[in-house]
Design brief:
Number of strands: 14
Bound molecules: pyridoxal-5'-phosphate
Radius of gyration: 21 Å
Strand content: 5-15%
Distance between the termini: 24 Å
Number of helices: 13
């Protein structure tokens, strides 16, 4: 089976991990700060906090921005469930803004209308989690302007978008957000096995997130309530977690990050080939915009409304192509239904879901394999026997 995504590991990656294994520190050594520094250099942001998953990063980001019980967190219904769960971890309430049917990101017009309505009802969100779906940056400029008017904080869920650019700058620079979150799961742009990071330009947010990722403990004198009792001393100042990334994982991240641009270029090439096969057909391709460049974490195609998605999906799977669907709209998950959401609540997300298929897109996908995928796709396009 050709997977929809997978990691690319070289001997260099293996050597980097081996080096840590032979060193005195498997955790809390040099590799994590080195990885954090490299993430700052790549994104242009001032501070990075590496943690053990993208989900952990979302959680500490919400906590650092003060999300509490009865606050609202809004996000996109077309995302991984963690984009919403992070709000529930804090006891907050979740709501969604429907997507734009071209970009598949949060629709700014709908966001503005929903904010206007929420303002009159006193139900404005404290945090908006903006997802750069499939790696295409959302309309950050406009969303940032709305955040100034309606006083909400912005977390960019850039778990798909490490290596993407917006207005010519790397996603993660936090020009239009408080915090940007990445994931380093093996299907993402780079991997640490499991892992994630929260990036910010705000020193206080960074220090607080660092503390929350390690039990709420600090060894930084400046953050203590009084002079340390001695060299052994630390203070717990908040209720934190153990969300630390190990040095074994971080070393893999440092090594992988060196090849990030190469990975993205390969993904772009694959996307261009799919674009060529699909142009002029009734299949809807990912949107391309002048002022931003997708990292192509996913290559999603929407099949024509006249075709049966399940049949197209099954046929590709039978042909050994590990297509996938990203995502079942979050509000339709049984757990969220129990929070009061229902079918029909976000119709654009639902009609997207009815037609979406993710095609294989990852750096190690050979031309030969991609050719096989496009051949199968062309058969489906031409025979139209999946109606
Ligand atoms: C992968 C992903 C996450 C969660 O990241 P993990 O590292 O798997 O915890 C969150 N949001 C989105 C959009 C993702 O794709």
């Amino acid at each position: 089976m050709i997977p929809y995504s997978c990691q690319s590991i070289t001997q260099e990656d293996i050597d980097a991990v081996n080096e840590v294994l032979k060193s005195p520190f498997l955790t809390q050594g040099d590799a994590v700060p080195t990885f954090e520094q490299a993430l700052c250099e790549y994104t242009g942001a001032h501070h990075a906090v590496a943690v053990n998953s993208g989900t952990s990063a979302l959680h500490i980001a919400c906590l650092a921005l003060g999300l509490q019980a009865d606050d609202y967190l809004w996000t996109s219904p077309i995302s991984f469930v963690a984009s919403a769960n992070c709000g529930l971890f804090c006891g907050a309430k979740i709501d969604f803004v429907d997507i734009n049917s071209d970009s598949w990101n949060i629709d700014v017009q709908l966001l503005e209308e929903k904010l206007e309505m929420a303002a009159t009802q006193g139900r404005l969100p404290k945090i908006l989690v903006v997802v750069h779906f499939a790696g295409l940056p959302a309309d950050m400029d406009k969303i940032h302007q709305l955040s100034l008017k309606y006083q909400f904080r912005i977390i960019e869920d850039a778990c798909h978008a490490l290596g993407a650019t917006y207005q010519g700058r790397a996603v993660g620079n936090c020009a239009y957000s408080d915090i940007t979150v990445f994931s380093f799961h093996p299907v993402k742009s780079i991997t640490t096995g499991e892992g994630g990071a929260a990036i910010t330009n705000d020193l206080q947010l960074a220090q607080y997130m660092k503390m929350l990722a390690s039990h709420g403990i600090t060894r930084n004198n400046e953050l203590m309530t009084h002079e340390p009792d001695g060299g052994w001393y630390y203070q717990q100042k908040a209720l934190g977690y153990n969300y630390r990334l190990s040095d074994i994982h971080a070393a893999l991240g440092v090594s992988q990050l060196k090849r990030l641009d190469d990975f993205i270029n390969k993904r772009k090439k694959i996307a261009e080939s799919y674009d060529n096969v699909l142009s002029g057909t009734l299949f809807q391709k990912p949107l391309r915009l002048q002022d931003r460049q997708s990292s192509f974490h996913l290559y999603v195609v929407l099949i024509p409304k006249t075709m049966n998605r399940r049949r197209v999906f099954d046929r590709l799977r039978q042909a050994g192509i590990g297509v996938n669907v990203h995502y079942v709209p979050i509000h339709l998950q049984p757990y969220f239904a129990s929070q009061g959401f229902d079918e029909g609540d976000f119709p654009l997300a639902e009609s997207y879901y009815a037609r979406a298929i993710s095609l294989p897109c990852y750096p190690l996908l050979t031309e030969e394999k991609q050719h096989y995928v496009t051949e199968c796709l062309e058969k489906i396009i031409n025979e139209e026997d999946c109606n």
